[in-house]
Write a structure and sequence with these properties.
This protein is α+β, with helices and mostly antiparallel strands. The protein contains four helices and eight strands, in the order ββααβββαβαββ. β7 and β8 form a beta hairpin. It is globular. The chain starts with 8 loop residues before the first strand and ends with a strand.
Length: 176
């Protein structure tokens, strides 16, 4: 990881991306409930109602001391409402030392360019942090996310991370 790669807060014209707080758990749980039925079961609310808001809050609490770059809560400037998350994960889907862009926003704010705007801010951070490339995985059926990644300059690599009854997870990359 490049030196001085702290990812604590980013600002855009319409958004503030900040470290996640426990109270963001309510919106993050809503994201879980809104997920497409084609998303694998381990990423959806199970029959017992897990993860609960409290479980998500506990996870956020545990991650609050983590200093490595990660996901940021996305807040609309001027409204102050939490609309989702955007940031980086290090899942090793591309190169283990290079970040993967991840984002998810509430359905109520889709088609307004927020994912692209938040993604641009994260790409700018990644460039300034010294990363040469950034990766992103996307389900083949997720047209909206594929379109956002295309607007951000990502190209499909031809690699399929996962293939199952839920679809194919495509690996994309962007040189910074």
């Amino acid at each position: 990881m490049p030196a001085d790669a702290a990812l604590n807060a980013l600002d855009t014209d319409r958004l503030v991306l900040r470290r996640s707080l426990e109270e963001d758990a309510r919106v993050f749980r809503q994201l879980w409930t809104e997920r497409d039925e084609r998303v694998p079961p381990h990423r959806r609310i199970d029959e017992a109602g897990h993860p609960t808001t409290e479980e998500i809050a506990a996870n956020l609490r545990a991650k609050s001391a983590d200093t490595k770059p990660g996901l940021l809560t996305v807040v609309r400037r001027g409204f102050g409402d939490v609309i989702g998350y955007c940031g980086v994960v290090f899942d090793g889907n591309g190169d283990p030392d290079e970040p993967e862009l991840a984002f998810e926003l509430l359905r109520a704010v889709h088609n307004r360019g927020y994912a692209t705007e938040a993604g641009r801010a994260v790409l700018s951070w990644a460039r300034s942090a010294g990363y040469r490339r950034i990766w992103a995985s996307v389900w083949d059926w997720n047209v909206a996310s594929r379109r956002a990644l295309e607007k951000l300059g990502f190209t499909e690599t031809g690699v399929v991370n996962k293939a199952s009854e839920h679809g194919r997870s495509l690996l994309t990359v962007r040189t910074l």
